[in-house]
Amino acid sequence: MKDKNNNSGMTLIVKTVTRLTVGLIMLYGLYITFHGHLTPGGGFAGGVILALSFIHLILAFGKDFVIKKFSEKIAGVFESIGAVLFLTIAVSGFLVGYFFINIYGKGIPFNLFSAGIILPCNLSIMLIVGFGLFCAFLTLLLFISSKE
Amino acid sequence: MSHLPYILCLILFLIGLYAVLVKKNLIKIIIGLGIIDYSLNLFLVLIGYKKQSIFPILSKDTQIQPMVDPLPQALVLTAIVIGLAVTMLMVAIAIRLYEKYETFDITQIRKLKG
Amino acid sequence: MTVETIISFLIFLMILGAVVAVELKDLLSSVVSIGAVGVILSLTFLLLQAPDLAIVQLVVEILALIILIRATVTRDSVNYSQREIFVKVVTMIGVVVFLISLVSIIKLLPPFGEPKLKVASYYITEGLGIKNNISETGAANIVSSIILDYRAYDTLGEATVLFCAVLGVLAVMRKVGRKNER
Predict the structure, then answer these.
(1) Domain of C57?
(2) A111-147 pLDDT, tens digit each
């Protein structure tokens, strides 16, 4: 894992296929989250698929390559942004008088921007679940490799 | 036998319980807790099933049909992701124990005053 | 072939997979076999008309397999000795007594396929707008409108639990334990 020829990770075929498809997997996770009020899915499924796309990068290219660009501190910051966004949406119900009430516009059914509070909440849950699971996996991996 | 799926689900739960009580390897205990997780989520969804009904999502061009009970599905949706997070925490603690005691055997991990 | 027969057959396959996963001596094989149990469970969710749950169960199963394999395959598994026969027999007797006493309680449930639907009938008619053609939430997916509009407190609690589990993993995994200070 210490060669200069970038020999860590898996073979050349796996690396080429990963370069072509990992962006599509991330886009699929975003699609399932954004259409959570129209088709099956929602924030939880989209978040886990987003975490799987990052883990795919780690498994194919080796963790040294990924940590240089995307360390676990940055992932922790994104996860906290998701949690704060969720609480902000909940507190914004105080404008009407209750905590966590649906005050955004309902819109026309079957549109993308309809159903009030559901779309921003799905987005924040995707941030919490996706980056949280990726941060925990990266910590497990760093600990295992530092003791071997 | 109209209660057969419930009874088979209960047998799956008991297999997981047997693995937690009898096995000595720490990873087998984690696998047993995972089996208990699966069986309980399946039991909740089995309660809400209705014969000759359709999934609870409306689309533009279908008629109104009787739908399956959506409330157990909403409860199980978050329970599955929480089960994953708890499994991750258990594996982290198991790795930490292996570093200290060099084994996964629970009869050797006795010295609590590390 | 009714749906009840197919679902009973799939749960029987899950029982076989679980017995194989618990009894094998090789750690890698038992982890792979529990992956098979999870995939059959996702198929069962699809047959029970729950597409949300099928998606989530499949991807969660893949992630759990990656974590378990990464933790166990680099450690050699020594053959541990079995427990004494006395412990195994007593546990089997306890499990059989538990099973017999619970079967008589399960027969009090309504038969498979006829739920009572007392609470959820309000969610279906008001949330989708079947009765007066104006929906309360504006969403087409009832499960999303339940977890984020009618019961949003539970989702807040779930996000808290997930956050605490990730914090727990970060707190347990430190580079230097106290053993190295002696």
Answers:
(1) 1-77
(2) 777 777 888 899 999 999 999 999 999 888 887 666 6
CATH of the domain at B42: 1.10.287.3510
Our count of domains for chain B comes to: 1
pTM of the predicted structure, to 2 decimals = 0.89
B95 vs A: CB within 8 A: yes
Q: Is the dihedral of CA C38, A54, C143, A91 positive or negative?
A: positive
Listed residue (A59, C18, C58, C73) closest to B91, CA to CA = C73
ipTM for the whole predicted complex goes beyond 0.95 = no
Q: Does residue A42 sit at the B interface (CB-CB below 8 Å)?
A: yes
Q: Is residue C98 part of a domain?
A: no
Find the angle CA(A55)-CA(A85)-CA(C153) to the nearest 5 degrees: 95
Q: What is the pLDDT of residues A44-97, one digit of tens each?
A: 999 999 999 999 999 998 888 888 888 888 889 999 999 999 998 888 877 776
* Closest CA of chain A from B1, distance in Å: 33
Cβ C137 vs Cβ A102: under 8 Å: yes
Domain that holds residue B80: 4-101
Q: What pLDDT, on a 0 to 100 scale, did the predictor assign at position B56?
A: 85
Check pLDDT > 50 for residue C81.
yes
Q: Which of C168, C181, A58, C75 is nearest to B95 (CA)?
A: C75
In a domain, C90, yes or no: no
Query: Does the distance separating the beta carbons of B89 and C87 come in below 8 Å?
Result: no
Query: How many structural domains does chain C have?
Result: 2
Identity at B90, one-letter amino acid code: M
Asked if the structure places residue B31 within a domain, the reply is yes
Q: How many domains does chain A have?
A: 1
A-chain CB neighbours of C56 within 8 Å are 44-45, 48
B109 domain residue, yes or no: no
